Amino acid sequence: MLQIVLAGLATTTTLMAVAWLLSLALRNVGVVDIFWGLAIAGAGGAWLLLQPDPGPRGALALLLAVLWAVRLALHILWRNRGKPEDRRYRVIRANNEPNFPVKSLYIVFLLQAVLAWLVAMPLLGTALSTAGPLGFVDLLGVLVWLAGFLLQATADAQLARFQQRADADRAVMNQGVWRYSRHPNYFGEFLMWWGIWLIAVAGGAWWTFFGPLLITFFLLKVSGVALTEKDIGSRRPEYADYIRRTSAFVPRPPR
Predict the structure, then answer these.
(1) Is the per-residue pLDDT at 167 higher than 90?
(2) Quick one: 19 and 121 in the same domain?
(3) Has residue 56 got a pLDDT over 90?
(4) Are the C-beta atoms of residues 198 and 144 closer than 8 Å to each other?
(5) Do residue 218 and residue 251 come from a single domain?
(6) Both 116 and 154 in a single domain?
């Protein structure tokens, strides 16, 4: 059992090591964002391949994770094309010179390898599941995941169109699904991982709740809502009014 669990960590670590080498060539550690979802799905794939007789629940959860990871990776790759290193990583770089390229291996890439491994735990639960055939809870999980997938994809597409505007650097995106939540893309990701957890619950792996709980914490308090809104008001004067009218996370009618 321990060997199976550690196989997932070995997979995320290997993928993040590849990302680190790529970041050295590109001089841009932002490539870690492209590999984030792929590492999580990769861990799930490793766990499923190690099962001598994998059931349908593990294959279903892995399929959903792969769809999420590939869409997200392609979106980030397209969004960041031709752009300099993300300002988040420029701050980390400035705070960790000299020798940041070497330090980034553990400050950025190995840290995210461990986090990806923990987030992926519902995929381990579904891979190990010996419960019966797919049922109502599995269907509920798929529906929750689908709602999140469509919401995140819609939010990303709408934001990409908005960013083509001449005033996008100072204007506020408050149309479409962004009218109901300041971060609908993050809420979509929240739904997807709790949906996959429901599939794990259907297989008896309720104990994997810390995976979606961890990603919820990061979306709300670390790299998601909190980090995005840390200084956005100074760059977008109308954002304070947007905050007063619009839910930060869970979509609801604006005030």
Answers:
(1) no
(2) yes
(3) yes
(4) yes
(5) yes
(6) no
CB contact at 8 A, 73 and 89: no
- Alpha helices (H) in the chain, listed in sequence order: 2-26, 31-49, 56-80, 87-95, 100-104, 111-119, 121-127, 136-162, 184-202, 210-217, 225-228, 232-235, 239-245
From the list 111, 103, 78, 91, the residue with the least C-alpha distance to 23 is 103
**Given phi > 0 = left and psi -120 to 50 = alpha, else beta, which region is 204?**
left
Give the whole-angstrom CA distance, residue 101 versus residue 89: 12
Count how many domains the chain has. Answer: 2
Select from 51, 215, 35, 38 the least CA-distant residue to 126. 51
Angle, alpha carbons 23-25-31 (nearest 5°): 25
Q: What is the pLDDT of residue 169?
A: 82
Mean pLDDT of the region 32-51: 96
* 121's tokens: 């735990």
Contacts of 241 (CB under 8 A, 6+ apart): none
The pTM for the full model equals 0.93
- The verdict on 1 and 126 lying in the same domain is yes
Q: How confident is the model at residue 166 (pLDDT cuts 50, 70, 90)?
A: confident
pLDDT by residue (tens digit) across 168-215? 888 899 999 999 999 999 999 999 999 999 999 999 999 999 999 999
The reported pLDDT for the residue numbered 227 is 82
**Length of the chain in residues, anyone?**
255
Instruction: Classify residue 214 as exposed, middle or buried by CB count within 10 Å of its CB (0-12, 13-18, 19+).
Output: middle
What is the model's pLDDT at position 39?
A: 98
Angstrom CA distances, 152 to 58, 186, 212, 235, stand at: 23, 7, 16, 24
